[in-house]
Predict the 3D structure of the following.
Amino acid sequence: MPMTGLDIYKLLPKTNCGDCGVPTCLAFAMALATQKTSLDKCPHVSADAKAALDGASAPPIQLVALGTADTKLEIGNETVLFRHEQTFYHPTGIAIEIPDNLPSAEIENKAQYIQNLVFDRVGKKVRVDLIAIRDVSNNPDVFSAACKIITAHSTLPIIQVSMNPAIQEVGLKITASRRPLIYSATPENYMHQADLAKEYNCPLAVVANNLDELADLTPKITALGVKEFVLNPNSSRMQQLLSDIIQIRRLALKKTFRPLGFPVIVFPPENTGTMEETLFAATFILKYAGIVVLKSSELWQMLPLVTVRQNIYTDPQKPIQVEPKLYPIGSVTESSPILVTTNFSLTYFTVEPEVEGSKVPSYILVVNTEGMSVMTAYAADKLNEKVITKALNESTISQRVKHKKVIIPGYVAALSGKLEAESGWQVMVGPREASSIPAYLKKVWK
């Protein structure tokens, strides 16, 4: 169980010196217990107390980092079971597997293809994160050659998948600068794999057949000097795997059970079809996987997965927003129409392609509604005549066009009279649905 403020206080020097920034050691202990400060703020804590408190103050789910500074992927360090309680912070890494026994040209093509699996969604770049090199050949030379090709043609973080420490080592001689994940340590080979993880300073995946075996294995590997782990309960049944991962999360967060306080990696069962694999990945993106490794990499498969991940790893209290300002679409002129919308990303990126598709060069005036959609903002009084008038005045649009006409969404037609009186602009009521914008601009504006 987490240490209470009084537990922590017993280990502090009790000098009440104030060097930590608070007046008493008890106040500092209470702040530590609620994670409002850090132990390094106290310059007088003893080495023994520091060791005890560092362990107690460690996050319930460890943060694990893979890759280089430019391509770093961080997983773990989550603090809640459910997104609405707070938020999830470190998005699930999506990995695509490349077998080492493919022809060299095919390995190169797949590495380049995975490198370029990047999508633009609601103004943000979302992508596949890792390449998993799987040892199928059981041949160190073949595995080494595959590692060389992949590192030459991709900058993504790497997972080395081999139960053979000798094959892992030849790969690490090539990939170590990428800080790959070593997959995996088992009850049979953990000592050798742990030696490699420590020597090359890489995180280590730990695989066991059930949670009891996992909980027994991680302390043994920790004692060998390895500190960063990723867990795999290794169940071939999806229902059992899901149950195990939920249990790991609950034990780590609710019971501070350190042997299972690590992020999780999952692989779909053998012979899983592409559609089933996609559903498998979506399930574990939603339910606590730190990394999901897939064999397939179809575009139709990847886009929904990165979309699900983007949605679940956004702060539920802070909708995705675009910058509120004036956006010119196309080769705008002094006679171009002005359309008003809100700064909720999904709203803007629904309106923008329709305006562009109309072939009528236009301005979109994005109003700051704190990330709310049109009707939500209107109901919350975040989209009103004063807000729109302020946006019109601050945008200097009056200096860019000769007319004094502005188009508002059809759902807020009731604003038109008040907006005209407040702003002095002629208000036109546009369509309710974005899909009707092209026809509206071609017919009404022209």
About this structure: DSSP finds 16 helices and 17 strands in the chain. The chain has three domains: 5-57, 63-312, 326-445.
